[in-house]
Design brief:
alpha/beta; Rossmann fold; Alpha-Beta Plaits; six-stranded mixed beta sheet
Length: 313
């Protein structure tokens, strides 16, 4: 069984009356991509900053690579790399210069050329940081964490604000870190990112862990059914009530989210037949009907009773 590189017990961090972390517990196995998933304001960044010694905890125990960051921070810093959500990238340095600067902080850093290759910035090595695109800056920030050659790499929302292609490029960088034997601790508020990248994860909301496990396990634990998703447009409240009462009787779970109606069913054929029969009886048109598997976003909705949100709380 793989050893734990992180053990967190009853971790609490308060800012005045705000319970940013309210007694969370989790562990991280060696050599995996571990995700902390949650909406903005859930406490993800506070978790990373407390684990890496930027904040002192109010209560609880932290073990990172067998060390407590409040007692052995200098020793711990030699073994890990950290990309914070808002890194300082020294805009008037060239890419190769800032990589050399960060490499000087570690005893056994990676070769600059290897890092440039992995983050795809070989042709930008002599460019000023301020001239890089948003996606290139994010990749550089990850490169600055990688160059430590640490056993553990912390990445705090590394793909926020990136376009789809830039996100995919950075996902490949993160997967390569795992392939090289590193443990990656990743925070994100993107459900699809967590589902595609993470071997194990926790869902954090309002300073509390509300679920944990692999993405597949979480989905299977909460859903044995499939999802029918259709546009809410043209479906008045009266008709939606009829869906709840008449479509596949009481074995149907019904939710509303972001202008869509979601029907969860373990007998999808019967549910579809009943749904279209009901629409025909009441002369209603059903728009953009999609059948899909449940996702982590569905898990969040089921656990909390509300739709997942990206805005700060």
């Amino acid at each position: 069984m793989a050893e734990n590189v992180i053990d967190i017990s009853n971790l609490k961090k308060y800012f005045a009356e705000v319970k940013a972390l309210d007694g969370i517990n989790f562990s991280v196995k060696k050599g995996i991509i571990f995700g902390m998933l949650g909406p903005n304001g859930a406490g993800k960044t506070t978790t990373i900053e407390t684990m890496t010694g930027l904040y002192q905890r109010d209560e609880g125990e932290i073990s990172i690579l067998g060390l407590d960051p409040e007692r052995s921070l200098k020793m711990l810093q030699k073994k890990m790399g950290v990309q914070l959500q808002s890194p300082s990238l020294f805009p008037r340095l060239k890419v190769v210069e800032i990589l050399n600067l960060f490499a000087s902080f570690y005893q056994n850093p990676l070769k600059i050329s290897n890092v440039l290759s992995q983050i795809g910035l070989q042709n930008k090595k002599d460019s000023w940081v301020k001239k890089l695109s948003g996606g290139q800056k994010h990749r550089l920030a990850v490169g600055l964490a990688m160059i430590s050659n640490g056993e553990l790499i912390f990445l705090d929302e590394p793909t926020t604000g990136l376009d789809p292609q830039a996100r995919q490029d950075l996902w490949n960088v993160i997967r390569n870190l795992k392939a090289e034997g590193k443990t990656v601790f990743l925070t994100t508020h993107y459900m699809d990112e967590a589902q595609k990248l993470c071997d194990d994860l926790v869902i954090l909301d309002k300073g509390k862990i509300i679920a944990n496990g692999s993405p597949e396990k979480l989905i299977n634990d909460y859903f044995k059914d499939r999802v029918i998703e259709l546009e809410d447009m043209g479906l008045n409240n009266s008709f939606k009530e009829r869906i709840k009462k008449e479509v596949f009787y009481n074995r149907l779970s019904f939710e509303e989210k972001k202008g869509h109606v979601l029907l969860y069913s373990d007998q999808i054929d019967k549910t579809l037949k009943s749904l279209f029969q009901l629409a025909d009886n009441y002369e209603r048109e059903l728009n953009d009907v999609v059948i899909r598997k449940a996702t982590l976003e569905d898990v969040f909705l089921k656990i909390t009773g509300r739709e997942y949100r990206d805005e700060a709380v």
